[in-house]
Amino acid sequence: MKIPESPPSISEMLVKLDQKKLAQILTSNIGLTDGKGRYLHWEKLKHLSPPEGLSSEEYWFATKLARQKAFKKLSLTDKNGSPFNFCVPDPLQRELHWLDQNAAGSITMDRPITNPHTRDTYLVSSLIEESISSSQLEGASTTRNVAKEMLRQGRQPKDHSEQMIFNNYKAMRAIRDYKDDELTPSLIKHLHEILTKNTLDDPSKAGHFRENTDDIQVVDSSESVVLHAPPDADTLPGRIEKICRFANDLEEKEFIHPVIKAITLHFMIGYDHPFVDGNGRTARALFYWAMAKQGYWLMEFISISRIIKQNPVQYGKAYLHTETDGNDLTYFLIHQMDIIKKGVKALHEYLEIKSQEIEEAEKLLDNSKAKGQLNHRQLSLLKHALEHPNAIYRIQEHQASHAVSYQTARTDLLKMSDQLNLLRRRKYGASFVFVSPPDLKARLIENKL
């Protein structure tokens, strides 16, 4: 990844422009975005055909003037003391309104995630997905299937990658316990300690800010390019305190949309890089904390890291566009809103697929004695068993997958094996396992169950 070219200096261009050209620019009606509604950085805008009579630099000058008029200045600053700022172009305003309607408040949806009996199943699945993807973004190499198996079985991690994912899962669950609390430096350190336990070269660094002796930079290893040098370590206590005041609504005098605040919190932890490692995971975890605190409950079921992982270069560029264009945070806000909306869309698609799978499983039971006797957890397991002959199921895995008690999970599986003959119970060491019969689907179709 290369550092984007810095835009032309507005102050220098202002000196060069004659009065006639300046008047033309000021009356050109050029807004915050291009004709397609895109909030473009100079590295892209310079390749567009500018409005008639203007050069590319003059087009940028006009665009930047419009943005500066709309800017809101934040109390948060870069390492040189210059404030970050942002504006809310119409496309971003629409997305924020859409999210308010679809992810917060007392939304009534005919969906499993609003049903108190089924929502925990989908919540666990989302937490696992976010834990895996967030860790993979920072180098974890374990496959998704192995990672899911570890989390659902409750077994201890076997290597560094599994430890990262295990830690991330614990941190995501911990966020739910702290969502009603104020953000403090201590809480940030605590989340980092959970996220990095047994994964750092120096274990004593978990839950502690980096020091001046820690040479921390964000580097593109493929090109040996330093993309970002964070603020000096001795400024971190004061900077993190300001971030906390911002997150707790103690700093800004003007209203800032809660989602913008949450995304800004994400950005600032990434920018300040307060720890020797695990900054990205901490930043994304705090984004979830901020969204949960403001009542955006649907975000619990969405993995932003899974979407980011599909195009990590754009994630990095969103940071760089902000840094190279006068601390204009709008680039990062727009990028993250796009990630959030894709996550919500992916959730709806996932729910549709799961609903269809449950319906298919129920249809196979139409002429079976098991018809009407399986709950949603058992139907989900049945669907999996039909597609995976000889699959092995354990009580602990079923318990973890659906966030139910051990006794409830045990009852589910015993009923499917001992009463309905849908699974086969086998002795495995000191406990039992449950096996999917290879002829299960055939016997259901032939009405032999």
Short recap of the structure:
This protein is mainly alpha-helical and 449 residues long. 55% of the residues lie in helices and 6% in strands. It is elongated and about 90 Å long.
Give an overview in words.
This protein has about 450 residues and is mainly alpha-helical. The chain folds into three domains: about 10-70, no CATH class; about 75-350, Orthogonal Bundle (Fic-like fold), CATH 1.10.3290; about 365-445, Orthogonal Bundle (Arc Repressor Mutant, subunit A), CATH 1.10.10. The chain is built from 19 helices and seven strands. The strands form three sheets. It has a three-stranded antiparallel beta sheet. A two-stranded antiparallel sheet has the order 1-2. A two-stranded antiparallel ribbon has the order 3-4. Helix 6 (about 120-135) packs across helix 8, helix 7 crosses helix 17 (about 395-400) and helix 8 (about 160-180) runs antiparallel to helix 9 (about 185-195). It is elongated, with a radius of gyration of 26 Å. The protein starts with 9 loop residues before the first helix and ends with a helix. The mean pLDDT is about 90.
